[in-house]
Q: What sequence folds into this?
């Protein structure tokens, strides 16, 4: 299919669409629009609500805090509200298009005492988006963390439908999907490897994070490219009112974040850095061999934004992080780098736009430290250049249209090993770069019908091109090369495209409860070569190609949402079914590292899963937090694996119970509690053995026929703050956390071994990672 | 070679992970799989190791030596001559080649087994093996002690012939085999060194106590087929510790014997090079 004709077609469709909608635009209406921000620091407030008492209708601000609503010229009470902030009511006599920027004030009082008017709309009830969870950085911080290292990925793992890939891993499995099926965006930039220290900590420094939203399969039309979820992480914009900083010293790392205005209310900055000192840790190791090693990570986040005028705002943000491991002999490092430039432009009150340019890279280097003839360097990277434009057209009170495009150029450098010395006897082993263009155009509308029904319907057209130069290998059934074709530079030698409908409907039973349903289809064109459960930074990403069709995921979901006590308590229940075509898996004993013929190791099949998720969440008061329970299954059937029979996916863990609670005893003392329970991980165990070469060789059961013992763990944290004193600028906070409070020995892996003393005796041995681990962190704020 | 780099990396990470982790033996109830014929056959004339061993697979926790399979008819043919193997009276289940038998390089051999009673649902099994060429332009071998890793490293100085080759390395200390289980055998391919002079490439490593200065050390280099190389890789993977960060799902080790039998029938030539270990 010709690429250019696609674009032409799209703009034609867009134009037609617009004509139709524009004619539906009611004449004699005026628009109220503006930004909603936090008065204390100028941060925009996405998802803040505007409620019009007279109409019993409302809207919510977008991710940049912008809102727009069209109304007939009358007198209205506009109620602006956001959880954790005092409400503001504006009396407005609407006679022309009006711009109102609102600054909401965070509630200092204990929220139990805040008067609730009941005027605010219940955003979670009315929004047509389902299967979504939002967590802000304050909530993330309140959850007890491993070694006191606050981690947003670990917070996500406590949400319904989300499980860790393996204990301690910063990989997540959403609704039974694999970790590479999650689109992890940091300020719109792809983060391909979200783990530090082999995944035990995530790469996101919570000090720099504003909020994270998790979309479980039902992605807005704006996003695509992954089957299971979108993890949309937004960095803080930086305080535009006054200079502030915070930081901390913990047992794993030290942090410092600084933010402040460059020009008051016009421009601000935020920088945050973090450096671990696990290398110090190793110095205290009992093992002499470990003492010469150094192992650490660091990361930097930075952001500046500049409000040119009411209609134009620029944001520039970036991330740079590295993990370093070295000793006298060997060195290794890996990390992500991202850069995002965004321009918000308001064409008129009804048309909000955002243009984004992103560059992101993940790379690793491994080599010997000496320069002898054996020394080598092994490198690999993946770089993306991404241009996006998104438009939101607040067409009328009842229609909100979103449309735009995204085009991403992938530069895959799967790896090369080369000798580092003239006398080197290592010939260069190199996997050539390959290139691909992943583009999408989309349009969606959120339409209110009457006061009870909201529809969301959107369509995303995704197009994927493999671009030369490249050599394409043809494989036989056994994965052996039988033919090859070479393509020249710039040759668009292979194209896939797909239509991805995103549909949703909300039926509001009343003001506090609703029923929602959704259907979504996603195409995934790039995936990770990973067959271990937890994954490592060495697992490269590889694109769809003539041998690898894009994976396609379909998901239907149905949910019931109900709020109690004026939104104090939110509850939800969702059921879903999902189906994956062209699911990718790997042959037994596949060689995934530095393999020129990686595609020969692939096996293609299908996957499916279903589940029910329940959640109760308390938003404010002395006790806040949530409890969730998920029952779910996830299966795969792939010819060539498990005798072609269906098997449980490694992420199939039927029962999942999580609690995350925060108890504010008084203004100075806060307790955090987390408890997690998961059905044991499915595993393949040996059912027989034979002798060869004086060794017992295992003969295995069917794939994932057994399970490890169930996983459960409780964590606790206590935070003690300075006496609140508005006169003082410096505030201290001390945090004690206890990971695995009751010292549960959760199996991380089970190995089968032969007894050293009697070679005819074999036994099973469980490895568990963390017993009870206390940690202490000192945090400060100024 | 590539595997070596990966292993180095793995060892490092395993050391770091083990810093935090603990292990304990646990009881697990396992079903018993059905019984299969296990074959361990060698045509290794330079090693004086020509025999076929037949046994049965057993439950994983059976905890007794594998039952041997006796009274089978085992024949090996090079296409011209067929040799009938005789069961060893002292070691039941071991079938020996007739006196004077020898195998040649760059030659295929086929083995046929007829059992007296069915094992694994079949009476007849067969397998074939190709004996590769031999990389014999070896200058020397040296054994050096690496103080960083506290490890004895075996360095090889030799011409690597052009074209794909797969290697298995065994070791003798004072003329006694010290790599007597397949887990201790070292293997490699020439993907990164094809056709180059191997100027002291590390081919094996031994713990501090395995060797000592003054020992006579003999490196046994065997050229094995690609398929046997894969068999050993798979076997060594499945019997080594698995860690969730790197290890793929467990999978059965391949076999070159028909009808669902397990094990391998291999043919390979070897060359022996000795040195006296000097003080570090």
A:
């Amino acid at each position: 299919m010709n690429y250019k004709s696609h674009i032409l077609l799209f703009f034609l469709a867009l134009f037609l669409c617009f004509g139709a909608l524009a004619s539906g635009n009611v004449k004699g209406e005026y628009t109220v629009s503006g930004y909603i921000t936090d008065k204390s620091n100028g941060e925009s407030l996405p998802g803040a609500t505007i409620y019009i008492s007279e109409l019993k209708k409302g809207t919510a601000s977008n991710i940049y805090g912008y809102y727009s609503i069209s109304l007939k010229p009358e007198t209205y009470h506009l109620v602006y509200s956001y959880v954790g902030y005092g409400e503001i009511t504006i009396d407005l006599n609407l006679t022309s298009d009006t711009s109102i920027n609102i600054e909401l004030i965070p509630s200092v009082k204990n929220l139990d005492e805040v008067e609730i008017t009941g005027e605010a709309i219940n955003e979670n009830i009315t929004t047509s988006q389902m299967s979504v969870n939002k967590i802000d950085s304050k909530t993330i911080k309140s959850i007890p963390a491993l070694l006191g290292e606050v981690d947003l990925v670990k917070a996500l793992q406590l949400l319904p439908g989300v499980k860790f890939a393996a204990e301690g891993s910063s990989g997540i499995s959403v609704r039974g999907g694999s970790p590479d099926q999650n689109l992890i965006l940091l300020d719109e930039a792809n983060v391909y490897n979200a783990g530090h220290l082999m995944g035990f900590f995530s790469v996101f420094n919570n000090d720099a994070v504003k909020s994270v939203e998790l979309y479980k399969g039902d992605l807005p039309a704006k996003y695509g490219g992954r089957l299971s979820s979108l993890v949309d992480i937004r960095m803080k914009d930086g305080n535009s009112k006054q200079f502030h900083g915070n930081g901390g010293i913990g047992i794993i790392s030290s942090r410092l974040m600084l933010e402040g205005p460059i020009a008051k209310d016009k421009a601000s900055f935020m920088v945050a850095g973090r450096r671990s000192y696990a290398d110090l840790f190793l110095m205290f190791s009992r093992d002499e061999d470990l003492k010469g090693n150094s192992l650490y990570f660091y990361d930097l986040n930075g952001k500046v934004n500049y409000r040119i005028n009411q209609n134009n705002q620029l944001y520039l943000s970036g991330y740079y992080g590295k993990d370093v491991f070295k000793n006298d002999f060997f060195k290794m490092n890996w990390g992500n780098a991202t850069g995002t430039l965004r321009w918000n432009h308001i064409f008129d009150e009804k048309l909000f736009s955002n243009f984004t340019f992103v560059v992101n890279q993940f790379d690793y280097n491994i080599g010997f430290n000496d320069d002898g003839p054996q020394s080598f360097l092994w490198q690999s990277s993946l770089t993306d250049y991404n241009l996006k434009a998104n438009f939101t057209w607040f067409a009328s009170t009842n229609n909100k249209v979103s449309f735009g495009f995204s085009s991403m150029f992938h530069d895959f450098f799967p790896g090369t090993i080369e000798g580092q010395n003239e006398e080197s006897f290592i010939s260069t082993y190199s996997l050539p770069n390959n290139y691909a263009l992943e583009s999408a155009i989309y349009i969606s509308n959120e339409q209110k019908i009457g006061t009870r029904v909201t529809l969301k319907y959107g369509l995303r057209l995704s197009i994927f091109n493999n671009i030369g130069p490249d050599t394409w290998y043809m494989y036989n059934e056994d994965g052996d090369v039988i033919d090859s074709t070479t393509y020249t530079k710039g040759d668009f030698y292979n194209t896939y495209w797909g239509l991805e409908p995103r549909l949703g409907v909300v039926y509001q039973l009343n003001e506090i409860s609703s029923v929602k349903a959704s259907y979504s289809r996603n195409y995934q064109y790039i995936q990770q070569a990973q067959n271990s459960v937890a994954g490592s930074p060495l697992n490269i990403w590889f694109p769809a190609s003539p041998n690898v069709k894009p994976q396609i995921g379909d998901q239907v979901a149905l949910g019931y949402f109900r709020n109690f006590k004026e939104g104090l308590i939110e509850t939800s229940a969702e059921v879903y079914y999902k189906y994956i075509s062209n699911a990718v898996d790997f042959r037994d004993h596949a060689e995934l590292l530095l393999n020129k013929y990686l595609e020969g190791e692939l096996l293609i099949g299908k996957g499916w899963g279903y589940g029910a998720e329940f959640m109760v969440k308390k938003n404010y008061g002395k006790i806040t937090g949530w409890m969730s329970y998920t029952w779910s299954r996830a299966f795969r059937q792939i010819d060539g694996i498990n005798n072609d029979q269906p098997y449980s996916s490694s992420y199939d863990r039927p029962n999942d119970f999580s609690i995350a609670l925060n108890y504010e005893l008084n203004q100075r003392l806060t307790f955090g509690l987390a408890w997690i329970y998961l059905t044991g991980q499915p595993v393949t165990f040996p059912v027989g053995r034979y002798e060869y070469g004086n060794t017992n060789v295992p003969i295995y059961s069917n794939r994932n026929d057994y399970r490890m013992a169930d996983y459960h763990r409780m964590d606790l944290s206590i935070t003690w703050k300075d006496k609140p004193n508005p006169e003082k600028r410096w505030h201290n906070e001390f945090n004690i956390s206890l990971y695995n409070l009751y010292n549960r020995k959760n199996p991380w892996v089970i190995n089968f071994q032969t007894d050293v003393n009697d070679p005819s005796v074999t036994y099973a041995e469980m490895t568990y990672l963390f017993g009870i681990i206390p940690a202490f962190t000192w945090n400060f704020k100024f | 070679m590539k595997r070596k780099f990966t292993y180095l990396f793995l060892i490092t990470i395993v050391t770091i992970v083990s810093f935090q982790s603990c292990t304990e033996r646990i009881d697990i109830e396992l079903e018993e799989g059905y019984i299969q014929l296990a074959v361990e056959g060698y045509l290794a004339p330079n090693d004086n190791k020509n025999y076929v061993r037949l046994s049965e697979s057993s439950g994983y926790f059976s905890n007794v030596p594998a039952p041997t399979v006796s009274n089978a008819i085992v024949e090996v043919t090079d296409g011209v001559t067929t040799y009938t193997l005789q069961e060893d009276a002292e070691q039941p289940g071991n079938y020996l080649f007739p006196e004077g038998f020898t195998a040649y390089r760059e030659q295929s051999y086929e083995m046929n087994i007829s059992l007296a009673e069915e094992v694994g649902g079949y009476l007849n099994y067969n397998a074939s093996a190709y004996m590769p060429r031999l990389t014999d332009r070896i200058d020397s071998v040296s054994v050096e002690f690496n103080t960083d890793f506290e490890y004895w490293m075996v360095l090889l100085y030799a011409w690597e012939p052009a074209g794909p080759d797969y290697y298995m390395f065994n070791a003798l200390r004072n003329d006694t085999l010290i790599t007597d289980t397949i887990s201790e055998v070292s293997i490699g391919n020439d993907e990164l060194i094809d056709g180059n002079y191997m100027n002291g490439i590390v081919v094996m490593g031994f713990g501090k106590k395995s060797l000592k200065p003054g020992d006579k050390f003999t490196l046994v280099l065997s050229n094995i087929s690609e398929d046997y190389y894969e068999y050993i890789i798979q076997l060594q993977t499945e019997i080594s510790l698995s860690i969730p960060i790197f290890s793929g799902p467990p999978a059965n080790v391949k076999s070159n014997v028909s009808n669902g039998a397990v094990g391998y029938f291999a043919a390979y030539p070897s060359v022996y090079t000795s040195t006296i270990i000097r003080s570090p």
Q: What stands out?
A: The first helix of chain A runs from residue 3 to 23. The longest strand of chain A covers residues 376-396. Chain A touches chain B through 85 residues (CB under 8 Å).
